[in-house]
Specification:
Length: 322
């Protein structure tokens, strides 16, 4: 899948509302987090990637299949055979049992009925739904609904999965289990996964690439390490000794101590010409052991919040237009 996803100035309009405002992306196979707040355009982009929506403007390819403005029925059908889609909405069929629903999804993908049935049982066993497979869908809990949606996305063994808010509504145990499954499916079975979410922890747990989508525009793309900037004025001082006493000493010396703390560390903000050797001198004077000085890089959460605030400021300066 070297030719995975390539998008060039993709736009999508719904009347006067511009959901996507010129998306340009080059993505390699892997586990990709599509991260953004509610209303950022994530679901719209996923639907374009799998051919449920056509772009209003722009072009691109997904798995070598062209995306074009207008109705491209043949290309859309090819894409759907290669992609498994787990929607945020339940989209379940009342009256069907779990195994019947997953089997139906397989048949809709072109699988013979007997093959679809066998495959449905295999997937439901893998997802630990042995006891639930013969229960009707309307009797399912939220966690079971999320798993059955994942099962129908996997039925035709696609190379790519698009998962829209896969942990939505789950309790902590259910969320951890879903994240574990997503990681296993991507890492152990070699599938590329695009996870659309507004939850930073989900991306950090599962994904090796991140696309930051805010207000219909790409605000960042790369690994977490690539996206999070290295700050030149913040450090984490790892110490052995009385943390509070050391922090007080630093304040007396005119060093700004940040409130956020980790046990055994003091986070500081200094001038850009501050040298790490000064940290060892301060530790010597305050009689604590300084075990390390680590540059305090921006976290994914800080990057996300900074990007959202920047987009809101730009929108206000533009008169609030979308």
């Amino acid at each position: 899948m070297s030719d995975f996803i390539s998008l060039n100035s993709i736009q999508r309009h719904f009347g006067v509302y511009h959901a996507l405002k010129g998306i340009t992306l080059e993505l390699q196979p892997g586990r990709i987090g599509l991260l953004g707040p509610n209303g950022a355009g994530k679901s719209t982009l996923l639907k374009i990637l799998m051919g449920l929506l056509s772009p209003s403007l722009g072009s691109g390819t997904v798995l070598g299949i062209p995306l074009r403005a207008g109705n491209n029925i043949q290309g859309n059908m090819e894409l759907r055979r290669l992609i498994g889609f787990m929607s945020e909405a339940d989209s379940l069929v009342p009256g069907l049992k779990g195994v019947e629903y997953v089997t139906l999804a397989g048949e809709l993908c072109g699988m013979p009925r007997r093959q679809a049935q066998r495959r449905a049982h295999e997937i439901l066993t893998y997802l630990e739904m042995e006891d639930a497979r013969y229960r009707k869908l309307e009797e399912y809990s939220t966690g079971m609904k999320q798993r059955i949606k994942l099962a129908q996305a996997l039925i035709h063994d696609p190379p790519v999965l698009l998962l829209d808010e896969p942990t939505s509504g789950l309790d902590p145990a259910g969320r951890d289990a879903m994240l574990r499954l997503m990681l296993e499916i991507g890492r152990d079975f070699g599938k590329s996964i695009i996870v659309s979410t507004h939850l930073l922890a989900d991306v950090e747990t599962v994904c090796d690439q991140v696309v930051l989508l805010i207000n219909g525009q790409i605000r960042g793309q790369g690994t977490v390490e690539e996206l999070c900037s290295r700050r030149q004025d913040r450090y984490r001082l790892q110490i052995q000794g009385d943390r509070e006493k050391f922090a007080g000493f630093l304040r007396d010396q005119g060093v700004e101590v940040l409130d956020e703390t980790i046990k055994g560390e003091v986070r500081i903000q200094v001038s850009r010409d501050w040298a790490p050797q000064q940290g060892f001198e301060l530790a010597r004077k305050s009689q604590v052991v300084l075990r390390g000085i680590i540059p305090d890089d921006e976290t994914l959460e800080e990057l996300f919040l900074r990007s959202v605030e920047g987009a809101e400021t730009e929108n206000l300066l533009a008169g609030g237009k979308v």
